[in-house]
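A reminder from the course coordinator: this example appears on the midterm review sheet, so study it carefully.

Given structure:
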């Protein structure tokens, strides 16, 4: 039986989740912890807020099964597991969203193991497509991990040779932008543009934002952001848009399963906007009886 309560999968000292929980005061909220679990896994929660399983496969498998048991998990763990930069690119194509030119390449270990199936990259062709400098990054990367700007053909080859095992890679065109925004989308309908200075290692800088500089694009980018989040089945996400010197918008990154919300480095009014919209999203899922979408034909058990 599902109880009318919310489970939180996050560290208890996380500032963002502390503020979210403080605004859920009238609802029963519990921080989740797990040891061994009987299989098949069941769940007593109507809603689980998941901000931790993205980096722990054990937790990801647990929340998938909680979702299959009828718990609404934010974000949908099945959608989050399926999404990556290649899936996003297909969504861009369907929705008519402009994105940098990109080519996908395997890691060198795959070419060595099955050379008759996966050929060595044609580097001259790749550079001819995307130009230099360009970016070399994993298709399922997060938070600038293993993202490299390369300036020469030789540097690109060297980066590929030393990239390690177990990843699939993109070589991507570099867009010379004049404006860059992180666009928060909550519950697929509430959209907030924040101007951003991209930097690696979580050191990007959020700025007070004057949208007058993209007034002619704001409504279009807002609509595309909502459509994209609905397509990717994300209840909270950040889409990174930039605009070049010709006024052309480009989507740079469309999948942030657990958006970074640095309270100390984000303008206060923007931070609390996100907190309040996220709280409203959680309350909606709690009261509506909604369940996550799944790619299975097995019936979801109806809870009393």
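Designed residues:
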């Amino acid at each position: 039986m599902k109880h009318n309560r919310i489970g939180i999968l996050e560290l208890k000292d996380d500032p963002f989740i502390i503020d979210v929980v403080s605004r859920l005061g009238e609802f029963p909220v519990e921080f989740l912890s797990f040891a061994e679990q009987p299989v098949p896994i069941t769940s007593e929660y109507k809603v689980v807020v998941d901000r931790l399983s993205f980096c722990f496969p054990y937790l990801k498998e647990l929340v998938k099964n909680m979702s299959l048991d009828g718990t609404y998990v934010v974000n949908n763990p099945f959608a989050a597991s399926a999404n990556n930069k290649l899936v996003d690119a297909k969504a861009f194509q369907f929705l008519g969203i402009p994105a940098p030119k990109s080519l996908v390449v395997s890691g060198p270990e795959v070419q060595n193991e099955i050379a008759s199936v996966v050929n060595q990259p044609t580097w001259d062709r790749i550079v001819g497509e995307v130009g230099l400098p360009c970016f070399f990054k994993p298709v399922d990367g997060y938070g600038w991990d293993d993202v490299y700007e390369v300036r020469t053909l030789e540097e690109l080859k060297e980066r590929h040779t030393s990239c390690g095992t177990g990843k699939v890679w993109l070589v991507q065109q570099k867009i010379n932008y004049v404006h860059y925004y992180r666009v928060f989308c909550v519950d697929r309908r509430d959209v907030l543009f924040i101007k951003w200075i991209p930097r690696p290692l979580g050191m990007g800088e959020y700025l007070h934002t004057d949208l007058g500089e993209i007034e002619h694009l704001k409504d279009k980018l807002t609509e595309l952001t909502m459509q994209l989040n609905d397509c990717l089945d994300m209840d909270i996400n950040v889409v990174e848009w930039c605009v070049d010197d010709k006024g052309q918008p480009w989507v740079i990154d469309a999948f942030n399963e657990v958006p970074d919300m640095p309270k100390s480095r984000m303008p206060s009014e923007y931070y609390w906007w996100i907190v309040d919209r996220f709280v409203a999203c959680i309350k909606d899922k709690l009261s509506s009886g909604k369940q996550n979408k799944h790619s299975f034909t097995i019936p979801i058990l109806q809870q009393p």
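DSSP finds nine helices and 13 strands in the chain. Residues 60 and 268 are 31 Å apart (CA to CA).
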